[in-house]
Amino acid sequence: QTHKETLGFQTEVKQLLQLMIHSLYSNKEIFLRELISNAADAADKLRFEALTQPELLEAAGQGPALPGGGELRIQVSVDPQAHTVTIDDNGIGMSRDEAIAHLGTIAKSGTGDFLRQLSGDQKKDSQLIGQFGVGFYSAFIVADQVDVYSRRAGLPASEGVHWSSRGEGEFDVETVDKPERGTRIVLHLKDDQQDFADAWRLRSIIKKYSDHIGLPIQMVKEHHGEDAPAEIEWETVNRASALWTRPRSEITDAEYQEFYKHAAHDHQDPLAWSHNKVEGKLEYTSLLYVPGHAPFDLYHRDAPKGLKLYVQRVFVMDQAEQFLPLYLRFIKGVVDSNDLSLNVSREILQSGPVIDSMKSALTKRSLDMLEKLATDKPEVYAGFWKQFGQVLKEGPAEDFNNREKIAGLLRFASTHDASGEQSVSLADYLGRMIEGQDKIYFLTGDSHTQVKDSPHLEVFRKKGIEVLLLTDRIDEWLMGYLTEFDGKSFVDVARGDLDLGALESAEDKQAQEEAAKEKQGLVERLKTALGDEVADVRVSHRLTDSPAILAIGEQDLGLQMRQILEASGQ
Ligand code: ADP
Ligand code: MG
Fold first, then answer.
1. Whether complex ipTM tops 0.85
2. Residue 43: which H helix or E strand, with range?
3. 339 exposed, middle or buried (CB, 10 Å; 0-12, 13-18, 19+)?
4. Distance, CA 38 to ligand 2 centroid (Å)?
5. What are the Histidine kinase/HSP90-like ATPase domain coordinates in residue numbering (predicted)?
């Protein structure tokens, strides 16, 4: 049965469509990049599934299995008379149910929350859309009707699907005959987008955005003059070799950037990348990227994370999470291993010596890449820190071995800089330590306004000692794991008896002792008056202007942690 039905898009899709059409008008040509990217993903998936089911390739009706004839390819063609652009792939294809699910809903977690943030301001929204990823629906930027003809590899020719929509809230699906495996997408160009029906223009867009795609993208060969053959000839217009397999010296920045957009499903440029080929006991190539902005779902537990895993050039899986620790979950990229088996599964990836040693090497590479960015381009790093600093702060707790390296990447607000910006590195701090200082002092609190005038800082101001001001929710937890840096220990200035050690002169100390003796009577009276409210009352030398201060015991939970525990009912 061909059973034609009309279905409504999920509400989120409707919203996204509206937005996309209105906010991406200045960058319309990206629709081609997105559709080619999907076609390339579909070829990757087929190649992978065919490892265990070679019959999937034969079922294509396209001759022998790979490699050799019937090669996987993407074909792009135009019909200026019909005002259409067609993108045809012979990848995995979609069944009717898959077409309904994948082209009618958005599966990403947190989509609703994301869409609620949109303001209606086109400029802001187009940036947010970039964070979200534009994908298939970008076809409707240039087309007022999109027809998708698809058949999943392995299904009979009679089980093709025709999906069709004008992008206005609903779509039709119908079962049709489709002899060739894969997906053909026909875009009916809007009246004002007719200039895309131009083979030369499409060619240049493909070169610009999709040159790095490791699969041939073909267009009809143009024949000038009379000797055009009767049969259509296709020619490959991109370079068609997987980018990471090429030598670094031959790859331009623009190519690295375009590859990132494909691999990370992002639409803004990355901040940095690191491309390495490792030979020896283990052999693999990695290409890691630092994205330019946090994805909208950075803090969703099931948000996609991890690298694209290839084994000997064959795509194996997206989101291989085992190669990087959680605190580096924002890093994107590809790892291509020669040591893993092609039928490696998520379970196998859980651990093992190969995975472990790759993970520690890739972690180190990621941290080195961030270090380099911080050194070479401090302004760019400051932008990175705003987006991902909070995540990096999870590092010292998760990755004990690298905690010194991670600490070097952290940025703090401090008494050195009144702006409250998190801009001070520990190296900066060490460089400003005063004579005799051998500790790194910090103060935690709820907000910068709250801590910046704290009485705890008085003695430090007087002596000209810098104090780090930590006011993020995660900071107290972080400081529980960060005990020293460059051999200097961290000291919470709000805790216990503040021992300033060598920073205090002998006269200071004597004066303090005398003061303590003198005030013994007052201390006793206060203790009786306050009773159980306090653990102890002491004469303090941390104050210069304020008469009294509340301090936290050396071993007690900090205020932030207390609040977190209280809020969770403990
Ligand atoms: P993404 O590529 O980030 O998953 P898209 O919106 O680009 O999101 O595509 C949505 C889904 O539609 C894909 O994940 C895939 O399952 C399916 N899809 C799109 N294009 C194709 C294609 N050419 N062949 C097979 N499946 C496709
Ligand atoms: Mg896509």
1. yes
2. helix 30-52
3. middle
4. 5
5. 27-193
